[in-house]
Amino acid sequence: MSTRVLYRGAPYDLLPGETLLAGLARQGVDIPSFCRTGVCQTCLVRATSGKPPARSQSGVSETLIASGCFLACQCVPEGVLEVEPCHDVGTFSTRVVQVEQMSSRVLRVELEAPAAFSYRAGQFVQLERPGGVTRPYSLASLPGGPHLELHVTLYPGGAMSQWLRWAIHQPITLRGPFGECFYLQDELDRPLLLAGTGSGLAPLLGVLRSALAAGHRAPIHLYHGSSTVEGQYASAELQRLVAATPNLRVFGSVLTPAEAKAGAQPPGVPAAPTKAAEPRYQLRHEPLDRLILADPLDFFQCRVYLCGDGELVQRLRKRIYLSGAPLTRIHIDPFLPPAPPVPAPAR
Ligand SMILES: Cc1cc2nc3c(=O)[nH]c(=O)nc-3n(C[C@H](O)[C@H](O)[C@H](O)COP(=O)(O)OP(=O)(O)OC[C@H]3O[C@@H](n4cnc5c(N)ncnc54)[C@H](O)[C@@H]3O)c2cc1C
User: Fold this and answer.
1) Is 42 touching ligand 1 by the criterion CB < 6 Å?
2) Closest-lying ligand 1 atom to the alpha carbon of residue 106
3) Could you tell me the maximum CA-CA distance found in the chain, to the nearest angstrom?
4) In the chain, which segments carry CATH 2.40.30.10?
5) Residues of the chain whose pLDDT is less than 50?
6) Phi first, then psi: what are they for 281, rounded to 5°?
7) Are 218 and 189 in contact (CB under 8 A)?
8) What is residue 285's predicted lDDT score, i.e. its pLDDT?
9) Which residue CA neighbors atom 27 of ligand 1 most closely?
């Protein structure tokens, strides 16, 4: 039996098991969406009557839930639902103030921080460029500074990343912040395990910078995966942090065999001074998951942050959970690609 919903006051019938997003798209109503797996929060809408299913509010902030917001891509309505677009997310006009190529594939982009924009390092925002293209990006910067720092992977033909390359001084719209738990919690004595691939380093750097600013006392273990040594684009900053922070260890995992041997340093970067027998900054030719799981960490004690490649993030989450970390202390931010276009409405 189909379910009837009202969207902006007009009735639409959804097929059994169909999500609100898919059902509306099938009938020609275009709600903006991106990953359609409940991660990116692009498809937030608001219920004015009826109760959205709990699954459709997973990962949504308490404030947005309190005003009835939910994710259309995760909502298979269980009863009467009246829905309208969501205008409850902070929306800010800003501009690009700095673009720097950190490696052949990653840009460091700085935006002017809007005065009223409040966030935690590691959360993510939606950027909308002139022309309407919208993409999620994570925040590496600490709140309170004049700029927001993003790390952007360049994709061939990328509608946002290739535009950002030449976007200095351009206006851009920012929405957010999103990401309920991907930031430092107030636990200075709990070990942190931060792991990610490619530009997935951005939110990890945000969490790391917050931890250092807060005077984190417990060990911090950061693992950054890339296919080449050049992909270890923040190695100079990470080595400086390691040199200044006795409780920080950083491992770069590089897949290309000729480029990394155990203990190697990226070219031109001096080795971090260390008193320990094992250097606290190392490049290893070992896949990221193997490197982490071979490390004799007490996973049960750690708070874990995983981000970057979606498939790797999910695999790591499962294996770290099976190695003892409670799921409630594993936070993930899979950098998912855009979902395929929604099929054209049936005629
Ligand atoms: C919550 C969240 C946070 C994110 N944070 C960041 C971040 O901090 N930094 C960052 O660089 N990215 C981040 N991403 C991913 C980012 O939004 C995508 O990289 C973005 O789609 C690329 O946009 P584009 O317009 O350049 O390319 P598009 O025009 O979207 O795509 C161009 C081509 O590249 C492919 N492609 C795009 N994205 C991916 C991908 N992730 N994996 C594989 N192929 C892809 C597309 O399928 C297409 O063929 C995040 C994603 C999510 C869901």
Assistant:
1) no
2) 11
3) 71
4) 91-178
5) 262, 267-271, 273-276
6) -125, 125
7) yes
8) 93
9) 158
DSSP result, 189-211: TS-EEEEEEGGGHHHHHHHHHHH
Ligand 1 touching residue 342 (CB < 6 A): no
Tell me the whole-structure pTM to 2 decimals. Answer: 0.89
For ligand 1, whether the C-beta of 287 sits within 6 Å is: no
**What is the atom index within ligand 1 of the atom nearest the CA of 133?**
25
Best residue among 137, 164, 175 to mutate for probing ligand 1's pocket (most ligand atoms within 8 Å of CB) is 137
If you classify domain 3-85 with CATH, what class do you get?
alpha beta
pLDDT score at 264? 55
Q: Which one is the CATH code of 192-334: 3.40.640.10, 3.10.450.50, 3.90.550.10, 3.40.50.80?
A: 3.40.50.80
Structure tokens at 14: 């959804």
Looking from the CA of residue 138, the nearest atom of ligand 1 is 8
Taking the centre of ligand 1 as the mean of its atom positions, its distance from the CA of residue 337, in whole angstroms, is 5
- Range(s) for CATH 3.40.50.80 in the chain? 192-334
CA 159 / ligand 1 centre spacing (Å): 9
User: What whole-number distance in Å separates Cα of residue 81 and Cα of residue 95?
Assistant: 38
Mind giving me the DSSP string for 106-132?
EEEEEEE--TT----TT-EEEEE-TTS
Q: What pLDDT shows up at residue 87?
A: 84
In this prediction, residue 307 carries a pLDDT of 96
CATH superfamily for domain 91-178? Translation factors (2.40.30.10)
